[in-house]
Amino acid sequence: MSDRLITHLRHVALAVPDYDRQHEFYTTMWGLTEVEHDSGITFLAAEGSPEQYVVRLRRAEEKRLDLVSFGAATAADVDALADRLIKQNVRIISEPGEVETPGGGYGFRFFDVDGRTIEVSSDVAVRVHRRLEEKESVPVRVSHVVLNSTDINRTREWYEKHLDFALSDTLIHPNMGDMMHFMRCNPQHHSMAIARGPHTSLHHISFEMRGIDEYMRGTGRLLRGGVRKIWGPGRHLAGNNTFSYFLDPHGNTLEYTTELELLDEDAWHPHVYDFTRPEVSDQWGTANPMDEFVAAESFNDPDRGVFVAPPV
């Protein structure tokens, strides 16, 4: 996929009404590091990541997903993608130009088919980061983001056509059809997934841990701290990654994971998995059963940011 213009997931930006409570949760409990703050906006980094930040929190009256940010290799790639999207009648929010957030860079924003704000940028300065040590149970980096859509096949086709994402695997329900598409922009099994939901919203943000031991220690720390667990710990079949899902104070679902599969893209053929089979949802059999109540937790609230660009 040498012609692919998007390289990786950079960060996810959230608007939150209870800003102080969210800030405390993400820094004290979840394990992210504040790198900069200004006028009700906080930029939070993962200790092992070269990205300037992996989560942005913005104080707002309404909860919403502000944007999802992806990387590009060069400014020329940013321009090429912008030109392509304009010709394909994608709604552009801002034309390519200087990015005025930590690390700078060159990028632009646009709406996806469901009305989410997507940002693509290049030339962002590399953050000074470090190798996490054994037993450090804080995120190494952001792993992937999962988005709820009322028509996941339309959304999948949009990302394939306009942004060159590729399908890795699909989860189905024998009576309801396609339930989740795992999409990739690099050899990682998925940097994004599209889940079937009753409305457009954020499903979850996933964070990579150093290893199994650190993943379990982090899961245990959150349980001891009284953070509400939705599902896990376990290991999925699609992606072969571990999972522990929790709710942040505003009901956004977050995941600790590790060992997400890397694919040989030239040889890979997508699988179709029936997620009602227990070994598909959880190979280990250690997680609480996936049922309609667990699934509903990650429907989240309807996104107030559909086709409304964030103010910053």
From TrEMBL:
This is VOC family protein. It comes from Thermobifida halotolerans. The keyword Acyltransferase does not apply. The keyword Metal-binding applies. PROSITE patterns: VOC. GO terms for biological process: L-methylmalonyl-CoA metabolic process. One of its GO terms (molecular function) is methylmalonyl-CoA epimerase activity. Keywords: Metal-binding. Pfam families: Glyoxalase.
